Amino acid sequence: MEEKMPAAEAAEKETVSKNFIEQEIEKDLAEGVYDHVQTRFPPEPNGYLHIGHAKSILLNYGLAKKYGGKFNLRFDDTNPTKEKVEFVESIKADVQWLGADYEDRLFFASDYFEQMYECAVLLIKKGKAFVCDLTADQIREYRGDFKTPGKESPYRNRSVEENLRLFEEMREGKYQDGEKVLRAKIDMASPNINMRDPVIYRVAHMSHHNTGDKWCIYPMYDFAHPIEDAIEHITHSICTLEFEDHRPLYDWVVRECEFENPPRQIEFAKLYLTNVVTGKRYIKKLVEDGIVDGWDDPRLVSIAALRRRGYTPESIRMFVDLVGVAKANSSVDYALLEYCIREDLKLKKARMMAVLDPVKLVIDNYPEDEMEDVEVPNNLENPELGTRKVPFGRELYIEREDFMEVPPKKYFRMFPGNEVRLMGAYFATCTGCEKDENGNVTVVHCTYDPATKGGSSADGRKVKGTIHWVAAKTAVKVECRLYENIVDEEKGKLNEDGSLNLNPNSLTVLTDCYVEPELGKAKAYDSYQFMRNGYFCADCKDSRPDHLVFNRIVSLKSSFKLQK
């Protein structure tokens, strides 16, 4: 049963269970079971990787690094019906971006097809595998269930010679898809259904992205995977909990195929994140229906989407480290991921002035044609980032919410008669506003005090409100995209008909935003803090020099607090 882990608890969870895999590895090394550590990340190239895969990548790479071992990237490409070169390339990019260095150890399961075929022949010769003519439906029927033992196939006792001939004919293409399979001969009465004579090879007349039309039979994952690990001298095959029931079959394969010093499978809990969609079939439908603009849409948590939105490898590594490694499934609050990116960016990024919902502010007593530069710090929390010059003039843009004609109590921004600080520039006193025929404010008016340059007064008077601004004359117009979770899990991730319960407000596009000139130089993936509006990243897909697009990575504030 999956239990939900609050963000704070997840962040606090620095328990021994985090290190249970390390404890097992250290025991194996101490007892001489292995004299080295070798791990791997073995994705199937049938989609884009997501945040859960990031945990597996960083865990496997981190274990190899900690024990002076080696880390492989290997594609488990045994199912040509769903695999694409596009997915291979995207996965390589993701692994490299996360910093998991596989050096020259990039492998494909398909590189080992000949060795897998030889392993299957060995099993036939040992009387441990047979060619079966039952259909897929019949095999399921014969398998039984948790209460009923399976029934042996009528083809189970074919002679070794007949099985070798039929298997060779399967390879030669003499049979149609589904006409024959090769099955391991184990135990149809086993309480573990995976051990009830599983299929290990099937006929599939499909072109393969790596081997072309060389093969028309392909190994099943449960047979191929342990052989791949053994060939590569993997010591510890780290996988998620759903493979725990497959472990006896994994061990059976490497033992019966007579590999020396075979790898050991250890399972850990998957990473479940609230309010997100990770299922490939759901994401595929979102893409096909045009609800998202691809597998890298910033509302998704594919690694490509997180990168496009502006997440950093460091923030993902921090998140994975805080979540830890557990033996029981749990869900982690999305807020923890947001906490990690805020923590990573807060001292690294300049705090820039950007107005997302603009209204014009006119300083009536400022010279009409004059412009000047004011100096502002790049990051008050990190003086090492220095300062920059920002142009200032008579007409500015301010946030619409920074003016109210009739303010509530404790509103310290602009309203008639109130004095505020224009950040880094001057004190200004609001004198009124202009409205259109519908009563909407179109222009706010104020006067400034020339003696308060830099944002402080010689007479020591204080102002309670400070607002940011952008000079209208030099402002750069940009598009900003604000994101929320694509599903509302509070109402249930799925509707009664099985469709996703989508959040209609998952994307807000603001087309009339104004930013200071420095931001006009932003290139893909450049990120900044927009004062009071959050952290933003220049979009890598839609942003152009003549039309800049910024994605909000995360807002500035959260209710989440890391427990110390």
TrEMBL record:
Name of the top EC class for this enzyme: ligase
Domain of life: Bacteria
Keyword Transmembrane helix: no
Domain Glutamyl/glutaminyl-tRNA synthetase class Ib anti-codon binding residue range list: 351-449
One of the GO biological process terms: glutaminyl-tRNA aminoacylation
Occurrences of domain Glutamyl/glutaminyl-tRNA synthetase class Ib catalytic (ranges): 37-346
Keywords: Aminoacyl-tRNA synthetase, ATP-binding, Cytoplasm, Ligase, Nucleotide-binding, Protein biosynthesis
Single annotated GO MF: glutamine-tRNA ligase activity
Catalysed reactions, as listed in the record: tRNA(Gln) + L-glutamine + ATP = L-glutaminyl-tRNA(Gln) + AMP + diphosphate
Residue ranges occupied by any tRNA synthetases class I (E and Q) anti-codon binding domain in the UniProt entry: 466-539
Gene3D superfamilies linked to this entry: HUPs, Ribosomal Protein L25, Chain P
Enzyme Commission number, as recorded: 6.1.1.18
One GO CC annotation: cytosol
PANTHER family (alphabetical): GLUTAMATE--TRNA LIGASE, GLUTAMINE-TRNA LIGASE
Family: Belongs to the class-I aminoacyl-tRNA synthetase family.
NCBIfam families in UniProt: glnS (TIGR00440), PRK14703.1 (NF011291)
Protein's name in the database: Glutamine--tRNA ligase
Species name: Candidatus Lachnoclostridium stercoripullorum
